[in-house]
Amino acid sequence: MGLLLKKGDHAPEFTLPSTLKKDISLSDFKGKKNVLVAFYPLDFTPG
């Protein structure tokens, strides 16, 4: 089973590729900005 978060939990550290082909980590924004992560599982897929 995957990681389960509840309302109010802190997000775990993660790193994802940006659209500019550069890795971005959650910690890059700590203390600087709010972060929103949105997932679009069917984006860029046919149909």
Explained architecture:
The chain has 47 residues and is an all-beta fold. The protein is 0% helix and 13% strand. It has strands at 15-17, 23-25. Strands 1-2 form a two-stranded antiparallel ribbon. A hairpin with a 5-residue loop joins strand 1 and strand 2 (23-25). Residues 8-47 form the Alkyl hydroperoxide reductase subunit C/ Thiol specific antioxidant domain. Keywords: Disulfide bond, Methyltransferase, Transferase. This is tRNA(5-methylaminomethyl-2-thiouridylate) methyltransferase.
- Counted by DSSP, the helix tally is 0
Detail the poorly predicted runs.
none
The helix fraction, in percent, is under 10%
- Major sheet: arrangement of strands: 1-2
Q: State mean pLDDT (0 to 100 scale).
A: 84
**Largest sheet, if any?**
2 strands, antiparallel
Overall geometric form: extended
Which radius of gyration do the C-alpha atoms yield?
A: 13 Å
Regarding quaternary structure, how should these chains be classified? Answer: single chain
* Record field, number of beta strands: 2
Report the span from N to C terminus: 30 Å
Strand proportion, as a percent range, falls in: 5-15%
Structural class of the secondary elements?
mainly beta
Order of helices and strands: EE
